[in-house]
Amino acid sequence: IGLLIWIPLPLGSNRPWAWSIMEVWVMVLSLCWSVLYLRNKVQFSTAFRSAKWVIVLFLIWLTYLLFQLLPLPLELLEQLSPKAAAIWSSMGQDTGSITVDPYISKVSLLLSVTYFLVFCLVLNLMTRRRRLKLMCYALICNGLFQAVYGAVMTLSNLEYGFFIKKYAYLGVATGTFVNRNHLAGYLEMTLAIGIGLMIASLDTTTAVTVKQRVLRFLKLLLSTKARIRLSLVMMVIALVLTHSRMGNTAFFISLALTGVIGLCFSRHATRSTVILLVSLVLIDILIVSQWFGFERLKQRVQETNTLTEARNEVYRDVQIQWQDYELTGSGLGSFSSVFPQYRSKDIHGFYREAHNDYLQFAAETGWIGLSLLGLIVGFCLIAALKAHYSRRDPLMRGISFASIMGMTAILIHSLVDFNLQIPANAATFTVLLALSWVSLHLEKQT
To answer: Among 23-32, 102-111, 136-145, 339-348, which stretch is predicted with the lowest mean pLDDT?
Structure first.
């Protein structure tokens, strides 16, 4: 929980020193758990054993990334990646690796190992309802802190990020992240968890008398549910203040889509669930958002076109890059090294990321890597859908809803941004992947 609270704070852990702290922290936690396992103090959880195929896919993914780094004879390399073979041959090398930037691919491999260990830790540590709730509350508090901090910095014109004065995205909320879209991505996931806990805490009984209705209302005002609802309102305000077009679009589409899926898949949907989902949209859009810049956000969306967006040209050139590294990619993390060779004259500035996670993963890892990642996410999404359909436990249904919504929001947002290249957001997304299996297998009595 301390790790999950920390990772968004130092610029989304998107600096070498910050993600190094995250990596060491995760390695220490994993080592401690392994020692306890060897001493028969802990065991692999049911969720961990049930997610064995996802774990196998993760291990294949890591092995594949390691294979990208191995020095291969140029004859073999030419069969796998002709473009990479030509680059290494032009430097007079007898051998070469699939990645054309070995250093950054090693960095990316370590990050990928870290995400895998986060996945395993969540599966093996979230074995009790109290632990699960505590982790979810911590993530909601983190989202609330980012929301309040980002809103205060924007509305007060102080414009500070993580102990440094902001030099970009002035006038919009970024929290302790650098990019407003990455704050939006993080809020999408914490909002999903908050909505999931709200659904889990809904009262399914029916109040008949006026006294019962009054008592229920007073109980609601003093309950954890009211504090979560207020936190959701604050996070939506901050989400609007980011003025992130796809961030806001992804949130509301994922909310609507997951709400429909939940009502259709669930055999136990109640009227209170419908009222909650409708109120989230009506209150947050029609009332709160109007006070905090919704019109400006709407104007940004309306003004978006191919003449003002350079991303369409970037996508065009990334696809050309992908064609040269179609099967195995140019190496995970190598986009910034390779893309300048493909950048057209009508694209100005330096692009460290492709602003489209799908295209970037495709260009860096080829069809092989993209397929592995797709299978990992797909299996987890299926597990969450199955949990939402089959579980009667309100908490597990709420967690599965959060997992579905959070994953859907990031998958939509990834069409035009690079949240999965930001360590804090990638790690939190990995938590959502693991929660899909936890929601399917955590027993009620625990």
So the answer is: 339-348
